[in-house]
Amino acid sequence: MKRMILPVFKKYKKLLISVMLVSAMGCGFMSGLSSAHTSLQVSLESYVEDYQYPDVMITTDVTDQSTAEKLRKLEEVSAVNARLCGDTYLKSPQGRFLSVRVFSYHPDDRLKFHYWSQAHDDSMDEVLLEYNFAEDNGIRAGDTVEVKVDQEFRRYFIAGIVTNPETLSVQPTEDSWGANTDFGYAYAPIGLLTKEYEQKYSEAKEELDGKQEELDAGWKDSEEKLAESQQKLEEAKKQLEESKKKFEDSSAEAQKKLEQLNKSEQELLATRNDLNRKREELAKTRETLSRTLQKLQGRELTKAADGLQEIDEALRTIEEMTALAGDPQVRRLVGLMKAYPDMEMADLLRRAGSVEAFLEKIASYGFVYDGGEPVSAAAERLLLFREQLMEDVQFLESDAFGDLSSLQEADREKLTALLRRYHLDDERLSLEENVRKAQRELGDLQALIEENHADMVIALLPQSGEEETMQEMLSGLQQMTKLYSELSGYAGEPVKTAGDFVRLYEAFPEEAERQKQELTKQRKELLNALSGYGVSEEDLSDLPAFQKAKEQEMKEGLSRIDSGIAEIDSGLRQIEEGLGQISAGREKISSTMETAEAQIQSAEQQISAGEEKYLYVRSRTLSKLWNLKGELEKAYQQLEEGEGYDQLCNQFLVYVRDGTDKAAALDRLKAAVNEEGIEIKSSFTYEQSAVRKRITDNLQTIETLSVLMPAVFFVIILIVAFLFMSLIIKQSRREIGILRALGFTKGDIRALYCGVNAVTSLCAILIGMGLGAVLTMAVGAYFRDFFPLAEYTYRPNLVMVLLSIVLTIVVGQIATLISTGSIAGIMPSEAMSRPAPDTAEVPVLLEKLLVRASPMTKFSVTTLIRNKMRFVFSVVCMAASVMMIFSALSFITSKNAMLQELYGERIRYDCQIFFKEEPDEAFLQELSDLHAVHDVQQLPYFQSEIEYGGKKQKTVINAVSRDTKLLGIYNGDHEPISVPEEGIILEKHIAQALGVGPGDTVSVGGPELTVAAVSEQSISRFQYVSYETSEKLGTPAIGSVICQIGEEDEQELIAFLVGNKNYLYSVFTRLALQGNEKTFKTYDLAAWIIIGFAILIGLIIVINTAQTNLLEKKRELCVLRTLGFQHREVSRKWFVQSFLQFIFSCLIGLPSGILIAKFALQHLGNDTREYLFANSLKEYLFTILLVLFYVVVSHLIAMHAMKQWDLVESVKDKE
Amino acid sequence: MEEKKILLEARHLWKSYGRGAAKVDALADVSLTIYDGELLTILGSSGSGKSTLLNALGGMDKPDKGEILSGGQDLCRMKDRALTAYRKKNVGFVFQSFNLIAELTARENVALTADTAHDPAIIETVFNMIGMSDKMKNYPSQLSGGQQQRVSIARALAKNPSLLLCDEPTGALDYETGKQILVELERLVREHGKTVVIVTHTQEIGKMSDRMIRMRNGRITDVTENKTPVPAVSIEW
User: Does the beta carbon of B108 lie under 8 angstroms from any beta carbon of chain A?
Assistant: First the structure.
């Protein structure tokens, strides 16, 4: 069997190399990255140990060596180092203000430094700087920096850049004192820290001595000044008494004069009243006269006269119309008109007007009428005239008049008679001319008669009575026309038809009577009104004369009244003058008296105020002096006791004996310190320390990323390797059949392929271990420089290494055993023949979709459907790539999303400034006025204990403005929470620890507050209340202010703040973010390694999958080429299949990737950080496009290989 | 006498494999003319170069020297693309091992070439020609060797080629089935006027052809014109 191993290797070398490569990558990745974690863990622990980080650290107020001595005597303690520490500012060589925490050090201290670089200069005091801080700020050994000591910056020499385990804890926890986050560590001889306080002591002592002297001198001076004031007061009192006596004498005399003046005034006032009354009467009379005169002169009288005239005129008109209406002719005509009610009045009147003219016209042609002739006779004649005219015209129009010379005699005579009858026989004209004239004029006359006028005359005339003459009829027509005109005007609107006129006419008598009565009444009223002005109807007849006479009369009366009033006014003026004199005299007396009285009162008040002031000043001066004396004594006492050094701490670095419980030892140590009456600022064991936390956090992150993820990926890779191995054995079906036919047992077959797999796995393990070692060392080198660590120990993670070896072998063997088992189980003859393909039908819908597709596309889809196992294999392998790449990317995006959420959404301010006490309004105003600062808000810190149902949680509460835009507070659903006026917003973990939810009431250090909401914060753990609610919480522990500033303005702000005594430190969001990003560097490294690995292994898997598929289908593809399909067509067919596999792999790979990422991110989180899956469209696109790129690359490789194939050989059946 | 129309003419073809002492001449100065409508057999033992010659004539392989003229164009000078087009348009292949696509039914296998041909035959007609109308929906694995070979012939005929090249078409078949295939090929020539070249090591098969070419060590040793071809059905071997 051993002989068979090599041929199998030869035949499947490409596939086996693929399996080996994939397994090696997975094996190396898992063992390498997990060993990097183990190495880091070992290195960090030995770092802490080698540099002798203390077992317990206690930070207290400043004390002296006696406390350290006391601690050293405790039985648990093996050694104690005491040191001073304090926060201050350092000015870098580049001129930037940098926050530093300075620790005093001594060569005998047990906490050692590792020097990265050293320099020496005896001429200056020296400082050691922590490595990362120095690196970040470009400070090197040998540089000179300025350190703020005692409110001024002094020059120091950087003697060394150092590192020790302590410097790992640049991110303090709640156990460390203070809360500043962006400071660096500096180590200086104790002098730097005590210098400030030594100087302060001497200055304070000097100041106190000076104050004592000032107090003594002030005391003496004050007593002298008080005695002098008292003497001046007594003198003033005496002078006042004398003035009072003089004033009393003067006031009696003035009183007499006043009485006389009052009497004279009464008399004058009576006279003035009398004159005023008379004057009023005269003025009234004058007004009446003036009004009458105005009326007489005005238009009213003229208007009244005109009105009377109009009334008379109207009455006359009515009389005339009545007369007209009563005219018998008119009445008769109206009677006739009744027969033509619809006739237009305008037409009727026009005809009536033209009757006389018509008669005159025809008179010139021989029709003569007499005015006295009865109308009936005239009518009869008129009819005859017309008849004759008709006949004559007809005669004249006959043909006989074409040629007069041929006219017969009878006709000539008739013609002559005719011309004569109409007076047309003009002898001056020829006959012919006369005939033509007669023809023309008689024609015109006929036309005239036939016109309406003549018709009417002819119609009217017969209806007239026998008794009526033509003259009367014509007169009647005129009268009626006149009446129509009057009545139309009277009616106020045009009378259109005869019927309308008749109705108006018949109603007129009654209406005329009514109008007449009305006008008569108005006339009477007008006359009555005029008589009121003394005007009679006769006067109106000559109105101007009447007006003139009356005017003259009135003017004379007015003139008399005016002179009377002038006299009265003169008398009144005299009286006013007299009264004015009296008033002036009285005022003068009163004024004199008041002045004197006020002077006396003022003097009295001055003396009284002087007395009060004297007593006040005396008591105040004495009290102030006593207070000063007290303060001075207290200050002396404080100075001697060393109080006021609140910015300076003592730290005790305690090393306990082996086997001692550190927590119990800490309790004993704290008790010992408390006995001394010294306040403990913070205390912790190494396990509770920030250093330990930093190490644990880093290790936990790296552990998850370097152990969990490689393990998950390794499992995926093993699945792929399993599939590859299964495929190899499936392709060996024919060979297995032959071997079985030759008599090899199932066991032999298994042994053969297990051997092949074992050799492959062993090669993979060897390569994998090599890759793992390289990875461990590369990552280790990075970690060593990052922390930095002087020594780095490489330690393999034996569990993971062994696991990767075992799994690589076991999975390959299982795949081999399962696959060979299934093939070796079938009969050799069947195994040797080609396996029957999947004969699945193409779904009808798909078939319809493919109707118009090219034959090659149809062929691609059909063969894909009928080769499900191959399809599933390819999709699973590709999906594994998609899954790994996508889940790997999520580590970076989720971390970035977390930082973005914290520094983009929750913390919207640029800077937070901390103060010992809440800054006052004036300072805030000054801060706001700075060019660098915008939108300042207070954010005081309250340290409190929240209690609920017996559970207690110590925490920090922030008071914020309710309308703050500088802070974002969100709940678990990422919805913003607004700060309520009443109540408290609790952070999720605190709320969970207390077991409270919204609506519950908690006790916050005494006051009871309702939980308004529960917030979710990824890093910080603050509770929030409004300013209003914060008033219940007492005085804040630390004053804090948040504000917006520009990056370039940070230094301007610090320069402003460092000079302020209330200022503690400031945290810039930008720097905090930078710091946070730095703490993520190990995370980033691991994440990028995972991404890089996923991208690489993804490429290998996709290419290998394509190659495997290609090898299997080589013969088929060559047959196609032989049948005449172009390379391009076959390539397209191949790509269609690859693309369909790619789409399905994305559909499976992306959701699986999300699940893996979520699973891993869940394990990444810790107490202070929570990672939420956050991938954007970018990552989806990146993954899809990258894998598509792989598909394209693998396709190009495959197609290149296909070009090299020998068609003849490929289509042959080969053994 | 009616002059025969030349379909393909090969002149002085050389093809060798290996180098130095191991060098083997698969074709050594081979010249050959194939006439339209004839049934030609190329006979020879294994390694005589007959299959190499067939592949060269079908545009599947290029000789090292010489020329193969088809319609005035030299196949030896054609680029891959043109050679593929030549195969697609002019040549139908029948392989000893059938080379059907296992995932496609008989009809789909035939349709694959028919759908892309310039002047395809009607698939049903082709199946009728080979007497396989009732097996069109079967997969190759559901067919016997002879049936598969017939489908292979149908696939070659579907694109209506002028030349049908058959490489040991009976090699993988039993006697009876092989004979049936030969009958089919003979019918294509006699009834449908196709030109068929059969490569075989079975001397008896040569009797059914119009011409027989014998090869040995890469050379044509004999060309025999067969005035009285024996019907395929009468051949025994």
Answer: yes
